[in-house]
Structures are given as structure tokens and as C-alpha cells.
Amino acid sequence: MSEKTKAHEMAEKQKEISISEFFTKNRHLLGFDNPTRALLMAVKEAVDNSLDACDEASILPELNIEIKKLSEERFIVIVEDNGPGILKANLPNVFGKLLYGSKFHRYRQSRGQQGIGISAVVLYSQLTTGKPIKVISRISEKRPAMYYELHIDTAKNEPKILKENEIEWKKAHGTKIEIELEGRYLKGKQSVDEYIKQVAIVNPHAQITYIDPDKEKINFSRATDKLPKLAEEIKPHPHGLELGTLMSMLAVTKARSVSGFFIGDFSRVGPTTAKEICDKAKVKADISPKTITRDQAEALLKAIKETKISAPSADSLSPIGAELLEKSLRKEFNAEYFVTTTRPAEVYRGFPFIIEAAIAFGGDLPKEEQVKLLRFANRVPLLYQQGACSVTESFTDTNWKPYGLEQKGANFPFGPAVVIVHISSVWVPFTSEAKEAVAHYPEIIKEIKLALQECGRKLGIYIRKHVRASEQRDKVDLFEKYIPELANSLYNLSGESKTKLEENLRKILKKNMKDILGEIEDGGEKDKS
Amino acid sequence: MSEKTKAHEMAEKQKEISISEFFTKNRHLLGFDNPTRALLMAVKEAVDNSLDACDEASILPELNIEIKKLSEERFIVIVEDNGPGILKANLPNVFGKLLYGSKFHRYRQSRGQQGIGISAVVLYSQLTTGKPIKVISRISEKRPAMYYELHIDTAKNEPKILKENEIEWKKAHGTKIEIELEGRYLKGKQSVDEYIKQVAIVNPHAQITYIDPDKEKINFSRATDKLPKLAEEIKPHPHGLELGTLMSMLAVTKARSVSGFFIGDFSRVGPTTAKEICDKAKVKADISPKTITRDQAEALLKAIKETKISAPSADSLSPIGAELLEKSLRKEFNAEYFVTTTRPAEVYRGFPFIIEAAIAFGGDLPKEEQVKLLRFANRVPLLYQQGACSVTESFTDTNWKPYGLEQKGANFPFGPAVVIVHISSVWVPFTSEAKEAVAHYPEIIKEIKLALQECGRKLGIYIRKHVRASEQRDKVDLFEKYIPELANSLYNLSGESKTKLEENLRKILKKNMKDILGEIEDGGEKDKS
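The joint structure predicted for all components is written out below.
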């Protein structure tokens, strides 16, 4: 058995890969593929965490964001909040370990969900500058504030604490982080400035102060003292459940019967529904969940699919709301027409979600440019990876011509419009760990399209009634203005009475105008059918 | 100290997340966001592994692929190869553990690179069907073939072996896997059929038999008995290196001096270059790498950036080659003009890469449709996530108008053309674990654009010289045909001699034709400037 095959040679190279090594080599998966985006990611992850912590602790958020420029390529990002703070025992893992957090295992809308974001920023910071992250956190005025400097040991995916001591701090509770990293600061549509502006729009309960790299201080004042409705933690919904998940849940449940399992471990299942599922699957309702075989689990799953179960509760979600969406659009864009819609809650893979859409049209919006699409997920603006996003695909796949916008193929339409789409979910399926684009689940695409079509139809009616008609009226007015002159010319040619000529010309115009307006009224309906 | 703060409550929920749990919840990151794509991913990961194993063992690949349809939503994927086989000790981890493999830690072009692909398929299979993967593998005719059935324990990210025994098998060496999963089989441009066809095109040394779900057998015969040039394993190139990576390398190197470290652990660095780097950084060349501080490492990195170092060797890469690229295009498309280009090797973040591009134009290609873009990475066709790919962005950002194609804004151009882009790299930076789109590194985008522009310029010259000219000539011909009739009409009006009239008309035509053709010759140059 001493023969060394090619398989032996290859086997020597097989080994385990640490998650930190994986993401160091794949840092673009985390959004760090260029310095401009890296700077945004650092601000974004820190701000998301601060807002989530404040929301969860029911604290009105006060954020101070500062970006210090050390050189064209080197920055320090500082984010300070008045949140609940982080326990000494957990703090190193929160910042120094990938795949660690409180949001992954629960069903509730939050900005963060993966346990990767902020530690990814630490990873990138140490990769590009070799510097540790600096953190101050305090959980109560009765306790001292703690100061930490830490690294990530990438081979082990563990925090490596370089400094740990008590420190004087003015705040009763909160967290302040300071990260040095390579980056580039640019203004424009994918900038930190734009990000913070959009965050302020969809988080009107937050007070944000931002000092930009040019040391300019910008205040985003709180627009309301009311905290947004706290999203409640819920249990998974049976619809969209997968066999593997069902089998894992059956294996670990504390319920003593299958019916008890369905009633206790899922939302929207009562005794009647549980019995119906068991009956359909020919599984006894009172046997222990641990005894269920693969085939029985498959029968149960089939029965679930065939059983009518109420739609998931929207309590776990916190959509922006039609009113606020329109308010945000009005604040930002000087348009002449606004339309918004909030779809009912739907489910993909057992996760509830809600789609909201809005359109601003006309006014000062540029007529000849591509329509601007603004994407949000769980109140977080998505500025990158537009092309990868199912929101974009749903948007370009929508036929905008019947709704009055110019469009060639499945491309961005052109016209004076801004379109907003917001997805709220207990688990937004992002296409990468950078959380910038929503994955292509058919259930989500369908809802986005329905939301866009709802808004589109109303926009179409508005455009046909007001815009096209007014354009036609302008032409008619112009023609009418030249009637006397035309009549004069015709008089010179024909010798016919000028009054008579003018009268006839007006008649012709009136007749044609009726035709034109009739066409406008009908046009849309024809396109829709 | 008994006060329970909000931070305490939140801390209770903080916990570690297993990588298998992470990818189960995020299965769209792995490409499993809909059943059609899931079926493709299963075939793709298995085929990529088989071809990589054969290439590495210098075996001409013979692949049997079969998809058995159990129902509209349930399939069995079988992939069998004549590769080197997998050792008993490693096999369970290869299929039952995410982040495990031989390709992650080395610098060499291969299809797989992450240690995730095939175990992700196993994860998805068990999630949707609860069934284990079945594997047969044999490493030599002197040893028995081994049969395995295994699961992944998602909470631990470890393989769970359900069956393990010797088995009779006809092959001397090779691996056969059988996976049951939920899927959907569709024909068309993102189908398994299309994938296998494109694989055969860029792997002309592979013999592939494919039995589709309708039991139709398709043979893709080997076009050459020559193995492609084996990509060699190289050391990283100093350009594009990051501080964190440099610091980690300094900490673990076996070299005893800094200059020895640079010479031994990098490619393209000799004693002169090593000395130059140390001198510029004001670091003594003979001190131990372990003693280098963060600030010294930063100085060394700065010095590396300012030092001229030869471009990386292309030995680690295995591009398709201009000849084969054109051959593939000719095989697939009945076009009238072909142009291909292979750029020199470049580096991003220390990883060498080569961009190849090709265009087929005219002939039977549809005139009124969007130009078709085919993307490849390390000889693997990329069928999904076109919108997320830097290849697509580079393509739409290119101004195709001067090259004779119709284009509105930064959208897909229209015209009778197919464009191919292939990136070969020791580490292709994909935007997600599903490996369907290339991340937006500026160095890569620049090279793709240059390759497209090179092809585009040649296409533009061809279109101006042949296509536009021939269109104009058609018009001239048409006009010439009517000269006698026109002359006759003019004779009736004027009484002038018909011969004289025809002669004059021909003179006018000739004069204008010259103008037209002159304009055609100049047009392109004007556009380019």
C-alpha cells in the first residue's frame, strides 16, 4: 500500500480555511473592492449598528459621525452613539470575530443581520493600515466606561486585545469607535455624504451630526420625537419552509407532540390548522417530534403547502409607510406629481416581507435623463451593486411605456422621474455579505413588480390627463396664434373674406383638437390590454 | 453590580454563527435562490471539480453527466469523471465541510478556488430533500473503490457519514457523485444545456456525454488530444500587496533576512530589487523579518510601490488563446467578421490576471437585438448575475457608437454582434460565493475596457469600410437603376437629349458617391479623436 497516487499528492494540499482568511482574500464580498466604497462601508456598518442598538433599547438615537482625512488615501472614521453600550464580556467578539452577533438567529427586522459587518471593517482596517480599532463603551452611569484597542487574529478568527482599561467618558451610556483605514473621499451619488443624507431621510427620529473630511459640520435635525414602531420578534411562518429546516427544527424542538410543535414553534398555526396538517400527512398528531422520519417530514411539508394558513403578521416588520415615503420624496425632489404604495406582507422561504414603492414625477426633475432608482432595505439606503439587485431587474423588466415613460427594451426608462423601492423583512436576502443588492427570489420580484405597476398605472393616468394634454394644448395654442396671419395669406391668394377664413380655420382646429384629445383619453387603455 | 442594563439583555442573545448555518440561511449567496439556478449550480460545481482534478493530474477528462427527472421539481444529478480520485481520509471533508479544499491557499489558475462549491450543493440537497449525497471514488486499480453516503452537520460544519463501504467499480480511477435536489429544468440561455455546451467550447480537450432530463443523449467529442498548458503554482507578486498581508507574511516567513524574505517569498524579486526596496524604506536588508515594526512594514510597502518590478509571469495562468477563442466563436455563430485580442498579464492586489476579448459581427446575427455578451472566468461560463459583473459594466461603459453599434447612454448596444470576455487569474474576485460575477476592481475594469476598445476599433474600421460602404453602394445602385426612367421624365419636361440627360445624371451620381465614400473613410477618425 506504499504506492503514492496523484490523489495522495493532491490530498496533502487539502486543508481547512478560516472564515477570516476567506474574507481577507475575498474582501470585495464585504464591499471593500475599492477605496471609495471602503470608506462608505466603514461608515455604513458603524451607523447601522448604532441605529439598531438604539432602536432595540428604545432610545432616540443621537449620532456623531466624523471622517478625519490623514492623506488622500488614509482616513479615520469616528462614530459615536448614545445607545445601550456593549458588555465587557462580549465587546471583543462583537468587533473582533466574524460570524458573531445577536441578529442572525432571530426573526425580526433589523439593519444588521449577519454578524459580519463591523468585524469586516476591522479586518479591512488592519489589512490596509495594520492599526487596531479603538472602542469606548459604557452601559450605565453606575459603571465606568471601558476602552479597548483590538485586532483580529485572522488564522483563528478570534479577537486579539492590545489594550483594555477604564476611561473617563462624558456619556452615561453609548459606544464610540475609531477606525483608521485606506479610503478615498468623493462627493456624488455613491458617497458617504449621500449615504448619511438618505439615512436621515428614512430615520426621521435620529439626530445626526456629520463632520466631513473637509471639516464641514452638517446637522440632520430630528424631525420627530416619536420612536418608530419596534419590530417584534416572531416565530417562522410555515409557508416557504424547507424540508431540511423542518427536519432540524423537529430534532431540536422542546414540544412533546407534533401538533404541539406546529402550534408552539411557528406563527399563525392553531390547534385546528396543526390537526389539519397532521391528518393530511397521515402523521399522528400526538407522537413525539423526535420520531418523525424523513419521509414523514416530507409528507408534513407537502401537507403544509396544501393547507391554508393566515398570512404572516407584519408585527415583525417596520416599513417606512406611504406618508413618510411621500414626505421624504417631497423633501428631496421638487416634482409635480407623487404616488406611493405599500403592499401587504408576503412570505419567501418562511420569511415575511413588505414592499413599498413611490414615484416622483415632473417639476424640476431632468427630462432627458435616465429615471433615478433609489433602493432601500430595512431603512438602509443601498448605493452600490444596482445591477445585481432584483429591485433593479424588477424595475427594468416593468414595461414603462404604457405609464408614459420612454424605454428601449428591458433597460432603464428615460424621463423626469425618481422611483423608490423599499423592502422590509426579518431577513433580507442580500446577494453578498456587503448587503447592497437583494437576491432574485421569485416571490420578492413579483411583489416589487406589483408595487411598481400600481404606482406606474397611476403615473400613466396622470401623464395622459395632464402632461400629454397640456403638450397638445400648447401646440393648439401656437397654431391658434397664427390663424390671423394664415387667414391673411389665404385672403391674398383667394380673395375670400378674412373673417370667413379665420372662422373656417378655427373650425378645423377645433375638430382636430377633439380627435387629438380623444386619442389621449383612449391611448393608455389600449396599451394596458 | 446586580443592575441589569439593556446591554445585559442584548448580550444574552450574542452568539457564534456556524458557517453552515450562515450559508443555509443565505443560500442565495451560493447561487441557490431559485430552483432553475439550483439545478445549474449542482451540475456546475461537480463539473468544475472534475475538470480541475483531471487538469491537475494531467488526465484527458472524460465526463458523464446525467440529470434524472423524478418530478417537475425533483431531480438527481449524476457526474462521473476519470480523474485521480479522492483519498478516504479527505473525501468526507471535501463534500461535507464548507471552507475546506486545496485551491484556496495557492497561486494558480483553477476553476474552483474557495473550498465551498460542492459542499454547498450537498447543503442545498439536504435542505430541500433531506437525502444524503452518494459518492464513489477510486484512486488506483490496485485499491478498491469506496462508496459513501453523507450529510453535513450544519451546527458544527462537519461531515456526518451515514454509509461507508468498499464497492465494485468498473473504473481504475475517478469519482462519481449522485445528488438529489429540488430544481427546475428549463431550456434557454441560462440552462444546464447551455452551460455544458459552453463548457465544451472552452475545454476542447474534454470528452463530455450528457443525458438530459428528457433522456436525450448528447455527445461533445474531444476536439484535441492535447492537454491545455498546466498552470504553474507561483508566489505572490509584490505589486498590489496590502500592509496587513505583508505583516502576516513577515511574521510567518522562514527567511532569516528581509532581503531573503523578498527574494524567496515573492515572484519577480531578485537581490538587486530586494536591496532597492530595503534602501528606499531605510530598513537594513539583513535584519530578521520578525523584528519589522508596523511603521517599517509601511515604509517597505511604500518602497515596493515606488520600485520598478517586472510584470508577473503568466505561467500561473492558462488563457484560452486568440486562436481558440475565434474558433469557438466561428463554431457557434455564423458571422461575417471576427476579431480577438489577448491582453498582457496585469496585477490586482498582487494577483496576476489576463483579459481576452472577442467580437463576432454580422452574418446571421440578429440586427435589431441587444448585443449578446458571453462572460467566462478561468474557462468557466458565467450565466447568471450579468448585471453584477464588472465585465458587464466595462462593456456598457464602453462607447460603442464610434465602433459602429447603436447605443443609448451606458446601456447594452444594439446590433448584429456577440462579444466574449474571458478573465484568467490565480484568484478571480467573484462578487459572491456563487462565482457568477467579477468584482469591480479598477485594474480589472481598465483591462477589460482596453481589450474591448482594441476589438471595437477594428470592428469600427470593418463596419465603416465594408458595411456602411456596401449600404451606400446599394443606394447608389438603386438610384442608377432609375436613371433611364428619370431621364425620360426630364426629356418630356425639357425636350433635352435623353443621352445627354442620362450622362449628366451619372456625373452627378458619381460626384456624390465620391463624397459619400470620402465621408465614410474619414468618419471613424473623427469619432476617435
